[in-house]
Design goal:
The chain is mainly beta and about 150 residues long. The chain has one domain: PCu(A)C copper chaperone (Immunoglobulin-like, Sandwich). The protein has one helix and ten strands; from the N terminus they run αββββββββββ. Strands 1, 2, 4, 5, 7 and 8 form a six-stranded antiparallel sheet that branches. A hairpin with a 3-residue loop joins β9 and β10. It is globular and about 40 Å long. Bound molecules: copper (II) ion. The site of copper (II) ion has 6 residues, from β8.
Amino acid sequence: MIAGVLAGCASDDASAPDGAPGEASAVTPGALTVEAAWARPGGAGGMSALYARVGNGTTSPDTLQAVSAEVARTVEIHESYENDDGTRGMRPLGPIPVPTGEQIALAPGGKHVMLIRLRRALQPNDSLAVDFQFAQAGTRSMTVPVRLQPPQ
Ligand SMILES: [Cu+2]
């Protein structure tokens, strides 16, 4: 299981140009937003990764506590990393703080949501229902597209 998960992440990273999560983009004043969400294709029983940008324009610090999706039996928040020797891996990450005025990127090569043991195949142009659970903002439910590349 662990080896398979690691392989899944490594292939994610290999097919991604260079993440570049950091492009400047203002948060929406007064709102906590989840934008540009997308998921990679994956086979039934296999895995996919889910990405998005979370912006906190409110005056309250928030925390992304968990993500759930009916399409996957297990959903985990992960972080990719690179070792000194250039090999890559990933590890489970706890809840992600989303400070006031900041945008958190879930992006290839960085923090991401792992969809594990898919109940059905995810193919490009499919979509899936996802719930993002925040400590302050509550649950944000959305329909996320399956894509080969990040949305522009
Ligand atoms: Cu992962």
